[in-house]
Here is the input.
Amino acid sequence: MEANELLKKVRKIEIKTRGLSQNIFAGEYHTAFKGRGMTFAEVREYQYGDDIRDIDWNVTARHNHPYVKVYEEERELTVMLLIDVSHSELFGAMGEVKRDMIAEIAATIAFSAIQNNDKIGVIFFTDKIEKFIPPQKGRKHILYIISQLLDFKPENNGTDIAYALRFFTDALKKRCTTFLISDFIDDKDFYKALSIASNKHDVIGMQVYDKRDTKMPDVGLIKVRDLESGGTRWINTSSKSVRRTYDKWWYDRQQQVADTMQRCRVDMTSVATDEDYVKALMMLFKNRGAR
Here is the structure.
């Protein structure tokens, strides 16, 4: 992508996603992703019902009256985006290309994060770690992330979610709020890696899929190509048994992903490329904020 064209795309996505994060997500994000640490703020006089463990004995002794320590939540978080950039993300038949929607979702989350003074970092992965952008703050950092989202060219084609999760768990020592964004088309089991990651971090799964992924149309004999392996084959889509086999593959895979997320106590939302991702994000934030 030429520099001028990339700059225009970055600017366009910045205007759209920053507006969304300011006008729609600001409060929801803050409520949904609370800081975990508590820091000392001040002391005040003891009131009935206060926890006696919070009594500040030094101040109490000086004033001959009980005082308690007041703590406030540490708001600053580290937010990580684990983004699948495998070749299956280049598919888009029913809506926009999956990768383009992923870029907008990631940018919206990133702008929401910096408005709350949080750090944001990114891991691009295929069946290897393609790029690691360490967490930082600031608009310049966000624009760099967006430009990478739009123009990054991975070296590999495949998908290995477990490998990405293991790298993430090893690389980030401080607890993070983590968005794992993928179509989850991965034939390898990632339960163990996700279980370890979710015990250490707050992990949220976000599936972006195309509705053509979910069902094989009856369009006769067609030649199809696997975007990740590069292999091609002829398929007779007029065959009911072929279509049923494909439908069952998709259903079973979705059930396996949902089961993995549930067993690991990971929140997950799914959005199709021809749907409004804003609604999916809002529902995710509201559900988490209500807990």
About this structure: The radius of gyration is 23 Å. The CA atoms of residues 94 and 211 lie 6 Å apart. The first helix runs from residue 3 to 32.
